[in-house]
Amino acid sequence: xxxxxxxxxxxxxxxxxxxxxxxxxxxxxxxxxxxxxxxxxxxxxxxxxxxxxxxxxxxxxxxxxxxxxxxxxxxxxxxxxxxxxxxxxxxxxxxxxxxxxxxxxxxxxxxxxxxxxxxxxxxxxxxxxxxxxxxxxxxxxxxxxxxxxxxxxxxxxxxxxxxxxxxxxxxxxxx
Length: 175
Known about the structure:
Elements: H1 3-9, H2 23-34, E1 45-50, H3 53-62, H4 68-71, E2 74-80, H5 82-115, E3 119-123, H6 128-135, E4 141-149, H7 163-166
Antiparallel strand pairs: 1-2, 2-4, 3-4
C-alpha cells in the first residue's frame, strides 16, 4: 500500500473478527514501532503485549468497560519510561519526551497494522493505576492502549478540521 493510502484508510475500529493475528504480522508491527524516532534515540518506552482473555478483560475494565478490547486478538499497551528519558534530559525528559517517544512508536505500530489489513483503535481513556497493575509495572507510565485484529466493521471516515483551521504561519497558497 502506498503511504498516503495507508493514512487515508486507517480507521478507529471497535469490532473485531475472531481470526488470530499472524505472528509475522505482529513482528512487523513491532519492527515498525522500533523504527520510530525518539528523543536522543533513547527509545524511552516499553510495549506490553496481551493475548490472554483474562488480561484483555482486565484492560477493558481498566479502560472504563471498553469491551471491544476483549474481542480483539491482541492488545498492546504503550508505556513511557520516565527514568530512561530523565537520564539524559532531566525533568523535561521524564515528563514529556518519554511520552512523545511512546506515542510516536504507537503511531508507527498503528500505521504498520493498517498497511497489513489489520485494524486498531487508540485507547487513551483508562485508569492509569489499574492498567499499571494489569501490566505489572510501577516505574513506567501507560499512555496508550491498542486493540489489534482483523476488522468486523468498516467505519466511515470521520470529519476532519480544515487544514487552514489547523496550520498557522506561512501557509502554502492555493490557486
